[in-house]
Design a protein that fits this description.
Layout (H helix, E strand, L loop, with lengths): L27 H33 L1 H37 L3 H27 L2 H7 L4 H33 L4 H23 L9 H26 L10 H34 L3 H37 L3 H37 L3 H13 L4 H16 L4 H26 L1 H39 L5
Membrane topology: Multi-pass membrane protein
Organism: marine gamma proteobacterium HTCC2143
InterPro entries: MATE_fam (IPR002528), MdtK-like (IPR048279), Membrane_Transporter-Flippase (IPR052031)
Length: 471
């Protein structure tokens, strides 16, 4: 295939500093392995901290674990906003880097962080006064709702710190530096794991705060992350241009991808809120089991999340440089990997599910619900990889509507109706089965769609290049 490069601006080249990588050169698989390994390191630490927190809370009591489960959809919504902004900004930055516009990349980095803070503060103000209503809607009883509200009120204070770190991680990967965010994520998570038990159980003379202690651990650890990310981005790497000139134009570019990405990422937690309400109808033990199983599954899924996050800056830079063979090879290798990982991960979970769950919580009802989940839903893990890779690729290309469509199809059109049907026929087990069936269907659709869209997009770009038109 023709891989003619578009002329790149001489404005600083493709590197902002010596430690960054130019993804338009070198073997594709080596870049992907390096990017993914660093991303796995970061995600292992973050999700590991979440799982350890769950283990701590399970020691406090089943009702506390259930309360933590009710906070999960709300926390996911906030994280979806942060991730959407990070996806939008990194998409613009990576393509700017690929075409040699390093000063534009710095401007986008600066403006994206300002935009992120504005949106997150507004969202916190909206949610803070309505947490009790939200948890009651989700089906939490009075005791669980009281615990969940107390946890979330503290957790929200640390959200701007967490969001800054999440968006900052996307931006650093976009310029070709996957190592720094991985190390910073690990440090922040270690801080959380160390601080949380002191406040949860009242160790070292600290007050015994229970579930609220976990929230304080999150807040203090993420404050540390904010300070580290701020130093790296603004001082060490000098990735910010302290000027608001062109801010509106930057916001428009970021939100072109970011808003649909926010909507796409928010559909899942909003739908999960309704799913949580369905599951809550089967009792506190079942919702606790679901909460525990979901966190265990996320630990295994982290490799697929890492891979999908890794291919985005790689595809963005190579698309900006018109290296289309490398774009296609990236997607092919990524999809091949998710199939292998899906088989290996499911085998591990099917065999070890009950043992893993019992090592964390011995309540028979919790063990039964969590074990069933882990033996059913991860069956479709490889197909989830297809979905993640496709949406990441679309966003990297600056095409945000297909991922939004995929999310609507997955969570609203297919999963919710199937979950309600499954709940009616088989109880909570039917809800879990519906999740696996949905992922199978949408995974197949996603793989076919991105392959055809990529072929069409390349043909259109080559035609424009042949006509002497540069983007």
């Amino acid at each position: 295939m023709n891989t003619t490069n578009e002329p790149a601006s001489a404005e600083g080249g493709n590197k902002l500093r010596p430690g960054t990588k130019d993804f338009t050169e070198g073997p594709v698989h080596q870049h992907l392995v390096r990017l993914t390994l660093f991303m796995v390191l970061g995600l292992v630490s973050v999700l590991g901290a979440s799982l350890v927190e769950t283990i701590y809370i399970s020691r406090v009591g089943t009702i506390d674990l259930a309360a933590l489960g009710f906070t999960f959809p709300l926390a996911m919504i906030f994280q979806s906003v942060a991730m959407g902004l990070g996806i939008g900004a990194s998409s613009v930055v990576a393509r700017a880097m690929g075409s040699g516009q390093s000063e534009k990349a710095k401007k986008i980095i600066t403006h994206s962080l300002v935009l992120m803070m504005i949106l997150i503060v507004l969202l916190i103000a909206l949610i803070y006064w309505n947490t009790d209503t939200i948890f009651s809607f989700l089906g939490a009883n009075e005791e669980a709702s009281t615990l969940a509200v107390a946890y979330m009120d503290i957790w929200l204070l640390g959200l701007p710190f967490f969001t800054f770190a999440m968006v900052g991680s996307h931006l650093m990967r976009a310029i070709g530096d996957p190592a720094t965010p991985a190390y910073l994520m690990m440090i922040g998570s270690v801080l959380q794991v160390l601080i949380a038990p002191i406040l949860i159980f009242g160790l070292l003379g600290a007050p015994k705060l229970g579930l609220e202690g976990a929230a304080w651990g999150f807040l203090l650890a993420r404050l540390g992350s904010l300070l580290m990310y701020g130093y790296i981005i603004a001082i060490r790497d000098k990735l910010m241009i302290f000027s608001m000139q062109g801010f509106i134009a930057s916001c428009r570019d970021i939100l072109h991808v970011g808003l649909p990405a926010i909507a796409s990422n928010s559909i899942a937690p909003l739908s999960m809120a309704l799913i949580t309400k369905l599951i809550a109808g089967h009792g506190v033990a079942v919702i606790a089991g679901f909460s525990l199983a979901a966190r265990i599954e996320h630990m295994i899924l982290m490799v697929l999340f890492a891979l999908a996050n890794s291919i985005a800056p790689f595809i963005g830079q190579n698309w900006g440089a018109a290296l289309f063979d490398r774009v296609q090879l990236t997607l092919k290798q990524a999809n091949g990997f998710v199939v292998v990982w899906g088989i290996v991960a499911y085998t591990f979970l099917y065999i070890g599910a009950e043992t893993i769950v019992r090592s964390i919580n011995s309540d028979p009802a919790v063990v039964e619900a969590a074990t069933f989940y882990l033996r059913i839903v991860p069956l479709a893990m490889g197909f989830m990889g297809f979905i993640l890779n496709a949406t990441s690729c679309f966003n990297a290309l600056g095409k945000p509507l297909p991922p939004l469509t995929i999310s609507i199809l997955q969570m609203i059109i297919i999963y919710l109706p199937l979950a309600m049907l499954g709940d009616y026929l088989l109880g909570y087990k039917g809800i879990f089965i519906a999740a696996a069936v949905t992922i199978f269907i949408v995974g197949i659709i996603s793989r076919i769609w991105i392959r055809r869209a990529l072929d069409l997009g390349i043909a259109q770009r080559l035609k424009r290049l042949g006509e002497g038109r540069h983007e």
